[in-house]
């Protein structure tokens, strides 16, 4: 059965059950009223009918009512009995009760006109009151009303007088009017049920949204604190090292200080790259470029790149691969996942072994990164892939970080169609498994590695126009480009860049994405290209907002994200000139 049909059937069952429960509550609430009405009917009959017949009727009516009430009360507590079965039972009991009271019409031939009218009035009142009691269950109400009214209508019609016939017709009209009232009660109950369900769903959704918002606020508060700490650490180191250079710029250890400054910059860049990855994933600008790759080659190269860091911490690194295994995936994104995993393993393994394994499991490739580090407690493992979630590792002397690494891994794996599983124990290490499909026979195998490309055109003498509204950035970029042998001109806004370009004649323009007065580098490059057709362009941005990333990606311009390293800049310029 389709899910929609199952859901509709479940809601119908719930509606019927609620109607039944309401009827039970009403029946038990009017129990003593019914006993009093029964006594009054018996008292009327006592006036002219033989006492044994009246007492027999009284006992039967009370017995049927009490058995019905007890049956209803018991059914209301049974969860496994279908609602429709309960309704069918209630219908039969209402028929029995209606006939029990309807049989009091047999007293009428002995009562005379006045007492017969009194008796009829009592019974009609009972039928009218049933709308409030059984109205939500229309068929149950109709069964009771017809059972109680039909005997009286027949007795009056058999009277043979115009009065008797008229009263019988009036009773028929009364049943018709009451039925319309009961149907309206039924519809109102259904509407209230639907409204209540919608309200309950809204309350549930609002509760979930509130909890998610609270959790997000708590996580982002932790994130801001962690980001402040992790940014301050390398900036503090930069401040100390640059101060040392200013005090004695010609000291013997100047190269070591410069290397330490570069390392601190790399730490800041790595932190900002994590934020950029999240923004790209949110913006949907990160695309998977799947192609056949030799996994063993990738893993061996990755292992070699981590060996110096592993050895510096006194750890062992083990790599087990299957030569020649081919997978179809995005090599850059897969390498980013593996680098994050190995980096985490090294960071949180004080002593022991880091192991990376490639194996075949059930006709799938399984990449395993495991360590013998501090591990993750079982109750925290479901949360570690959430953004901004940080496992408290201060007790082990580690900084917490931003809580983005495993979240990025999870989302990149989803983009590549890779299943990720984590198993870990506190103080016993962590194992993360990546499952990806093996190459199919109809997928072309990777081509042999081509020889390294010949060096592209040099940068010496290359004319570059730098467009940025920050004086410090213009100065820094100009100094760097001049040391690479380029000729450089600068502009703080689009008009200044246009004026400068007329006399300078640039080959390349490097524009910041966000400029003063709500201008942007994309529009500025467009205007410069109209003035100088064939102008090569490079867009540089420090923005991580998803909408801005999408706009930059849609422009088709080559994009670099701040901070830009020397190697990134040289490669981007070479790519522009080559293409």
UniProtKB/TrEMBL annotation:
The record places domain Histidine kinase at 226-440
SUPFAM superfamilies, per this entry?
A: ATPase domain of HSP90 chaperone/DNA topoisomerase II/histidine kinase, CheY-like, Homodimeric domain of signal transducing histidine kinase
Coiled-coil boundaries: none
Q: Which SMART domains match?
A: HATPase_c, HisKA, REC
Q: Which domain of life is it from?
A: Bacteria
Any one Pfam family match given in the protein's UniProt record, by short name:
Response_reg
User: Entry's Gene3D superfamilies?
Assistant: 1.10.287.130, 3.40.50.2300, Histidine kinase-like ATPase, C-terminal domain
**What EC number(s) does this enzyme carry?**
2.7.13.3
Q: Which residues cross the membrane?
A: 20-44, 50-69, 90-107, 163-182
**InterPro entries registered for this protein in UniProt:** CheY-like_superfamily, HATPase_C_sf, HATPase_dom, His_kinase_dom, HisK_dim/P_dom, HisK_dim/P_sf, Sig_transdc_His_kin-like_C, Sig_transdc_resp-reg_receiver
Q: Tell me the ranges covered by the Response regulatory domain, including all copies.
A: 463-577
Residues carrying 4-aspartylphosphate: 512
Catalytic activity line of the entry: ATP + protein L-histidine = ADP + protein N-phospho-L-histidine
Q: Which UniProt keywords apply?
A: Kinase, Membrane, Phosphoprotein, Transferase, Transmembrane, Transmembrane helix
Supply one GO CC term from the record.
plasma membrane
Tell me a Gene Ontology molecular-function term this record carries. phosphorelay sensor kinase activity
Protein name stated in the entry: histidine kinase
Q: Which organism is it from?
A: Pseudorhodoferax soli
């Amino acid at each position: 059965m389709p899910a929609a049909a199952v859901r509709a059937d479940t809601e119908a069952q719930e509606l019927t059950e609620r109607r039944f429960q309401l009827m039970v509550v009403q029946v038990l609430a009017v129990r003593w009223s019914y006993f009093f009405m029964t006594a009054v009917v018996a008292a009327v009959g006592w006036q002219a009918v033989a006492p044994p017949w009246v007492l027999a009727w009284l006992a039967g009516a009370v017995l049927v009512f009490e058995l019905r009430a007890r049956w209803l009360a018991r059914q209301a507590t049974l969860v496994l009995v279908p609602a429709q079965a309960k309704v069918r039972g209630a219908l039969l009991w209402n028929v029995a009760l209606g006939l029990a009271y309807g049989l009091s019409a047999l007293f009428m031939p002995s009562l005379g006109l006045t007492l017969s009218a009194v008796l009829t009035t009592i019974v009609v009142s009972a039928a009218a009151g049933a709308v409030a009691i059984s109205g939500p269950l229309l068929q149950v109400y109709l069964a009771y009303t017809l059972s109680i009214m039909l005997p009286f209508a027949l007795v009056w019609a058999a009277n043979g007088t115009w009065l008797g016939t008229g009263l019988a017709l009036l009773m028929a009209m009364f049943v018709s009017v009451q039925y319309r009232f009961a149907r309206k009660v039924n519809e109102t109950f259904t509407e209230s049920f639907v409204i209540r369900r919608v309200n309950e769903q809204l309350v549930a959704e609002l509760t979930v949204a509130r909890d998610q918002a609270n959790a997000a606020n708590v996580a982002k508060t932790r994130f801001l604190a962690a980001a402040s700490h992790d940014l301050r650490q390398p900036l503090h180191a930069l401040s100390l090292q640059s101060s040392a250079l200013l005090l004695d710029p010609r000291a013997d250890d100047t190269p070591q200080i410069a290397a330490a400054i570069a390392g601190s910059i790399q730490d800041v860049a790595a932190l900002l790259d994590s934020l950029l990855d999240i923004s790209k994933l949110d913006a949907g600008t990160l695309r998977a470029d799947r192609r056949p790759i030799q996994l063993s080659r990738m893993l061996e190269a990755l292992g070699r790149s981590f060996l110096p860091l592993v050895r510096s911490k006194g750890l062992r690194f083990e790599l087990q691969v299957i030569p020649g295994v081919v997978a179809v995936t995005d090599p850059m994104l897969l390498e980013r996942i593996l680098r994050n995993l190995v980096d985490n393993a090294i960071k949180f393994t004080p002593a022991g072994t880091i192991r990376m394994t490639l194996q075949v499991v059930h006709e799938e490739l399984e990449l395993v990164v495991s360590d013998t580090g501090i591990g993750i407690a079982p109750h925290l493992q479901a949360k570690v892939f959430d953004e901004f979630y940080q496992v408290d590792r201060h007790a082990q002397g580690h900084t917490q970080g931003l809580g983005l690494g495993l979240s990025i891994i999870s989302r990149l794996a989803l983009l590549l169609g890779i299943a990720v599983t984590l198993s870990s124990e506190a103080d016993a290490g962590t194992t993360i498994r990546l499952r990806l499909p093996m190459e199919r026979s109809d997928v072309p195998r990777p081509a042999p590695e081509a020889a390294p490309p010949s060096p592209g055109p040099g940068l010496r003498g290359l004319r570059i126009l730098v467009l940025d509204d920050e004086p410090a950035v213009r100065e820094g970029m100009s100094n760097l480009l001049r040391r690479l042998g380029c000729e450089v001109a600068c502009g703080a806004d689009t008009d200044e860049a246009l004026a400068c370009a007329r006399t300078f004649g640039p080959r390349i323009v490097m524009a910041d994405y966000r400029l003063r007065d709500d201008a942007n580098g994309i529009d500025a490059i467009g205007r410069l290209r109209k003035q100088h057709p064939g102008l090569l362009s490079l867009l540089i941005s420090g923005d991580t907002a998803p909408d801005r990333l999408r706009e930059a990606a849609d422009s088709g311009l080559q994009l670099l994200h701040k901070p830009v390293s020397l190697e990134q800049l040289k490669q981007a310029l070479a790519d522009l000139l080559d293409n």
